[in-house]
Design the sequence.
C-alpha cells in the first residue's frame, strides 16, 4: 500500500527549487503537503517536471480546482488561482501547485495531455470560473446548461442567480372555463 | 495514455445515435450518455452531467462551518455520515482541533457502517441492473436495519447531520452495541448469500468478467480512487496512506485486485464490506465512556443539555450560532486540503478561510466526479448491454457528481 | 368505492365511479428520482414498505405508460426542461407528487441553479414535507393521490384563468386549490365536447 512518508519532502523541495528558481513565487508548508505558488504560464512546466522527473513520479492526479481571491483579506498576486493536487506513489507524498491567473486574461496551459483526469476538472473550472485552458480538446460547459451566461462561482456572481431559475414555461391544464359540472 | 484528440469515428449509414438518460432506470439518478452505435457495438459516447448541479460550493461560502455540515448529507446520499465526518475532520484540521477519543471511536464505527450501507446498495443495484432482482431486496433489508441504527443514533434515517465541528451532536444511545452486533451478524449472512449467488454464476460472470477493464496507469492518470482504483491494482487507501481517527490502531487488510474489470469491482466491494464488519467489531471494543466534544467552548458547540441548563453554555451557544462576523468560529486565514476515505474513494475538502465565520471557499473533491470520465474510453468498442454493467460497478452518485 | 347499493350478489354504480376506482388502485408511477428522496422512494418500493399493497408497484420509466409522476429530489436548471418534457408525454389523466422539501420549495438550497419548487411550472397534486420524507410519508401521499383519483380530481385538469397561466409570475394560483372539475368519463368537460362534436 502507498503510505505517507514525510521524510521525502526534503528531496522534493530541493528538486523543485532547483528546477523552478525565480519562477517560484513562494511556497507554503501545510499539514502534510507543500504548496508551490507559480504564475499561470509556468504551472504546466512545473507539473510536467513533477510527473516526469526520475525520483519524483507524481503520476497520480488528485484534484484541480480554482479559487477567486476577489474579496480575500490578504493581497494575492492575481485574482484567480488554479490549484492542482498531485500524489506520488513512489515518494508517498502529496503536492499542490497554485497557479495565479490574471483577471483581465484568465488563461493558462491545459494539463489534459499530462493527466486524463484534468479533462473534466478543467471543464468544470471553465464553467464555474471562466478560466480558459489553452490546448484543451473539448473546453465547454459541463455542469451548467450550454446557453447559460456567466460563471456562477465567481465572487461577484449573486448566490441566487440572475433570474434564470424562474425562466421556464408554466404547464397548465386548461384555460377554458368549465361549463356545468362541479 | 488514452488520447481524446485521436478519436476517429468511422460513421456510415448504419450508425445510429442513441440516448440514454437522464431519466432512465439504469442511469442511477441523473446521468446521460449519448452514444453512436453500429448494431450492438458502441462507436463513440459522450457523457453529459450537471442535471443535479445544486451549487453546494457557492452555498458553502454563505453558510457557517456548522451549518455546512447539514448540506454535506445531501452530497453522497448513500452514506451521509461519511460526508459529515469528512467535513468535520477538514474543518477541525483548519482550526487545529483534536477531538476526544470517544468521539474518534464513534466516528470510526459510523464511517465503517456507512461504508457498509453504501456498498450494499451498490452491489444490490448493480446486480439488479443485470437482471437479478432478489439481491437488491436482500441488501435493502440490510440497509433498513442499518437505517434503524442510524435513526437511533442520529435521529434520522438518511440525512444524519450528526457531527459538529469539534465533536458530535450527541452521544450514542444506550442499546447501541446490541443493535450493531445484531446487524453485523445478519450482514455476514447476506454477504455469504451474495458470494454464493454470483461468484460462480455463469450469466453474471459472462456479463462482468473482462468487461470494462481499467488499467493501473489509466486509473492513476484519471485520479480514480477508492474501490475502483483498488480493483485495478492501485494500492491507495487514505485509511492506510495517512491514518486518521483511530485507523492506525485497527488491524485490517485493504483488498486489492489486479484485473480491473467489472467483476473485480463487484468482488472488491464485497471484500471491503467483510473488512468493514471486522473493523466495526474491533472499534466497538475500544468504545469507552468519556467526553465527546472538544473542551474549548469558543470553538465547539456545548452539549445540548447544558445549553438548556446553565448560563455559561447558553452564552457560548449563542456566540457560536448567531449570524454576523462577531460571532461563530473564526479559523486562521489559510487554506488546507484534507481528505478521508469515503465509500467511493477520496473525499477531499479544500477549505479556504478568510478569518470570518463562513468559509471563503469550499471545494469538494468528490470521488464520483473524478471516477466517472473513464466510462467514455471503456465503452468504445464494447457492446450496448455492457453499459449498465460497467456503470453499475462505478457506483456513481449524482449528488456528489454534480454537487 | 362509489357503490350505491350492495347486497350479497349485486352492486350498482356509475361507470365513472368504477373507472375512477380502478384507476386509483392501479396507479403506475413514473419515478423521477434525482437525489436523496429517490433513495427513500426506492426504500418505499422495497420489501419493508412495499407499495405493491397499494397497487402501484409497477415502476414504469416510460412516461407514456404511467399516470403518477413522482418528483423526488432537487430539480436544477438543466433538469427542469427534462421534467417538463416527461410531464408532457404522460397521458391524461395524470397526477404528480412532489416529494421532499427540494422539489416542493427548493429546500435548503436557495442557489442560482435550483428550481424553487416544481409547482411553479407543473401542476402538483400532493406535497410531501421532509428532507427526505420517510417511506411512510410517501405511502401517505400515495393514498392522498388515490383519494383524489377516486373522486375524479386531478390538479392537471384544474381550471386556471388565462392571465394566470400565461404569466409565470402569477403561477402562485396553483397553490390554492379552488374549483375541481371532473375528468375522464365526465362528458361535460369542454375539451370532450369539442372533440366529440
Sequence:
Amino acid at each position: 500500500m502507498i503510505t505517507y512518508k514525510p521524510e521525502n519532502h526534503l528531496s522534493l523541495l530541493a528538486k523543485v527549487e532547483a528546477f523552478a528558481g525565480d519562477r517560484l513565487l513562494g511556497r507554503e508548508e501545510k499539514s502534510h503537503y507543500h504548496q508551490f505558488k507559480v504564475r499561470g504560464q509556468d504551472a504546466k512546466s512545473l507539473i510536467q517536471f513533477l510527473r516526469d522527473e526520475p525520483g519524483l513520479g507524481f503520476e497520480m492526479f488528485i484534484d484541480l480546482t480554482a479559487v477567486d481571491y476577489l474579496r480575500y483579506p490578504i493581497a494575492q498576486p492575481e485574482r484567480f488561482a488554479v490549484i492542482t493536487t498531485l500524489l506520488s506513489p513512489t515518494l508517498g507524498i502529496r503536492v499542490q501547485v497554485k497557479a495565479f491567473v490574471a483577471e483581465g486574461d484568465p488563461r493558462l496551459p491545459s494539463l489534459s495531455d499530462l493527466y486524463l483526469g484534468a479533462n473534466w476538472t478543467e471543464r468544470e473550472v471553465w464553467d464555474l470560473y471562466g478560466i480558459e485552458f489553452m490546448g484543451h480538446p473539448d473546453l465547454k460547459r459541463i455542469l451548467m446548461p450550454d446557453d447559460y451566461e456567466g460563471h456562477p462561482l465567481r465572487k461577484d456572481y449573486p448566490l441566487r442567480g440572475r433570474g434564470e431559475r424562474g425562466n421556464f414555461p408554466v404547464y397548465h391544464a386548461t384555460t377554458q372555463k368549465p361549463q356545468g359540472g362541479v | 495514455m488514452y488520447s481524446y484528440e485521436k478519436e476517429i469515428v468511422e460513421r456510415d449509414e448504419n450508425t445510429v445515435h442513441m440516448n440514454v438518460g437522464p431519466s432512465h432506470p439504469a442511469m442511477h439518478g441523473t446521468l446521460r450518455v449519448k452514444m453512436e452505435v453500429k448494431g450492438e457495438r458502441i462507436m463513440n459516447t459522450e457523457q453529459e452531467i450537471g442535471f443535479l448541479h445544486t451549487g453546494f460550493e457557492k452555498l458553502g461560502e454563505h453558510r457557517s462551518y456548522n451549518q455546512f455540515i447539514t448540506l454535506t448529507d445531501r452530497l453522497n446520499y448513500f452514506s451521509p455520515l461519511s460526508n459529515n465526518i469528512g467535513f468535520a475532520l477538514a474543518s477541525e484540521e483548519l482550526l487545529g482541533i483534536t477531538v476526544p477519543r470517544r468521539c474518534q471511536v464513534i466516528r470510526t464505527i459510523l464511517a465503517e457502517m456507512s461504508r457498509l450501507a453504501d456498498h450494499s446498495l451498490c452491489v444490490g443495484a448493480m446486480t439488479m441492473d443485470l437482471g437479478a432482482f432478489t439481491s437488491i431486496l436482500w441488501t435493502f433489508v440490510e440497509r433498513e436495519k442499518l437505517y434503524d441504527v442510524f435513526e437511533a443514533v442520529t435521529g434520522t434515517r438518511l440525512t444524519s447531520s450528526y457531527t459538529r465541528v469539534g465533536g458530535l451532536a450527541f452521544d450514542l444511545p444506550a442499546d447501541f452495541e446490541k443493535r450493531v452486533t445484531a446487524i453485523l451478524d445478519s450482514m455476514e449472512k447476506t454477504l455469504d448469500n451474495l458470494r454464493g449467488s454470483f461468484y460462480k454464476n455463469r450469466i453474471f460472470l459472462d456479463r462482468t468478467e473482462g468487461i470494462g477493464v481499467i488499467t493501473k496507469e489509466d486509473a492513476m492518470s484519471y485520479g480514480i480512487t477508492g474501490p475502483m482504483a483498488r480493483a485495478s491494482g492501485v494500492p491507495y487507501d487514505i485509511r492506510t496512506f495517512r491514518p486518521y481517527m483511530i485507523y492506525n490502531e485497527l488491524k485490517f487488510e485493504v483488498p486489492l485486485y489486479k484485473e480491473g474489470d467489472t467483476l473485480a469491482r463487484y468482488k472488491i466491494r464485497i471484500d471491503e464490506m467483510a473488512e468493514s464488519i471486522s473493523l466495526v467489531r474491533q472499534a466497538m471494543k475500544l468504545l469507552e465512556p468519556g467526553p465527546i466534544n472538544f473542551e474549548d467552548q469558543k470553538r465547539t458547540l456545548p452539549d445540548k443539555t447544558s445549553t438548556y441548563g446553565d448560563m455559561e453554555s447558553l452564552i457560548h451557544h449563542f456566540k457560536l450560532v448567531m449570524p454576523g462576523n462577531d460571532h461563530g468560529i473564526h479559523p486562521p486565514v489559510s487554506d488546507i486540503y484534507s481528505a478521508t476515505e469515503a465509500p467511493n474513494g477520496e473525499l477531499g475538502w479544500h477549505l479556504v478561510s478568510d478569518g470570518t465565520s463562513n468559509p471563503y471557499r469550499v471545494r469538494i473533491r468528490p470521488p464520483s466526479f473524478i471516477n466517472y470520465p473513464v466510462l467514455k474510453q471503456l465503452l468504445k468498442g464494447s457492446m450496448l448491454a455492457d453499459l449498465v454493467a460497467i456503470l453499475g460497478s462505478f457506483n456513481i452518485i449524482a449528488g456528489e457528481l454534480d454537487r | 368505492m362509489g357503490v350505491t347499493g350492495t347486497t350479497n350478489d349485486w352492486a350498482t354504480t356509475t361507470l365513472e365511479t368504477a373507472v375512477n376506482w380502478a384507476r386509483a388502485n392501479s396507479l403506475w408511477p413514473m419515478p423521477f428520482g434525482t437525489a436523496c428522496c429517490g433513495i427513500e422512494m426506492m426504500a418505499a418500493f422495497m420489501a419493508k414498505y412495499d407499495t405493491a399493497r397499494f397497487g402501484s408497484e409497477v415502476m414504469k420509466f416510460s412516461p407514456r405508460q404511467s399516470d403518477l409522476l413522482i418528483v423526488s429530489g432537487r430539480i436544477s436548471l438543466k433538469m427542469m426542461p427534462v421534467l417538463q418534457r416527461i410531464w408532457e408525454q404522460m397521458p391524461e389523466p395524470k397526477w404528480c407528487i412532489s416529494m421532499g422539501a427540494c422539489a416542493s420549495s427548493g429546500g435548503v438550497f436557495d442557489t442560482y441553479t435550483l428550481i424553487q419548487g416544481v409547482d411553479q411550472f407543473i401542476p402538483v397534486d400532493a406535497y410531501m414535507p421532509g428532507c427526505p420524507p420517510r417511506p411512510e410519508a410517501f405511502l401517505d401521499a400515495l393514498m392522498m393521490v388515490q383519494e383524489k383519483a377516486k373522486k375524479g380530481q386531478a390538479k392537471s385538469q384544474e381550471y386556471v384563468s388565462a392571465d394566470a397561466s400565461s404569466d409565470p409570475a402569477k403561477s402562485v394560483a396553483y397553490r390554492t386549490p379552488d374549483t375541481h372539475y371532473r375528468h375522464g368519463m365526465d362528458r361535460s368537460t369542454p375539451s370532450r365536447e369539442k372533440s366529440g362534436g
The first strand of chain A starts at residue 26 and ends at 29. Residues 6-155 of chain A form a domain with the Beta Polymerase; domain 2 fold (CATH 3.30.460.80). The mean pLDDT of chain A is 87.
